[in-house]
Design goal:
Helices cover about 55% and strands about 15% of the residues. With about 100 residues, it is an alpha+beta fold.
Length: about 100
């Protein structure tokens, strides 16, 4: 039950849904790319990413001083369906503004 509630809670915020879809579209992004693209401060972006990671959607890979986020694989059917449903939404997604090198 706790895992289910964490998953549902992770997508219970429009900004997190938009960030999740943004990462799904771009496959792998550095925190600074998300921060720059969404014009948000780093602490706020990191908080949203932590909630999405705890909800079972994201994995993080650290490379030097950078943290790169991508969709967790393999992803269970429930979360796959959520991502699929999110892709049908008419979300305002910003253009990618690269702020660090891959």
């Amino acid at each position: 039950m706790d895992i289910f509630l964490q998953t549902v809670g992770a997508i219970n915020d429009e900004t997190r849904v938009r960030i999740l879809h943004f990462i799904d579209i771009h496959k792998e992004l550095c925190v600074c790319d998300i921060e720059s693209s969404f014009d948000m401060i780093q602490s706020r972006v990191s908080r949203h990413l932590k909630i999405l990671r705890d909800g079972g959607f994201l994995k993080v890979e650290r490379r030097g001083k950078w943290a790169y986020y991508s969709i967790k694989t393999p992803l269970d059917v429930f979360r796959q369906e959520i991502l699929k449903e999110i892709s049908y939404l008419k979300l305002e997604i910003p253009k990618l503004k690269r702020a660090c090198e891959l």
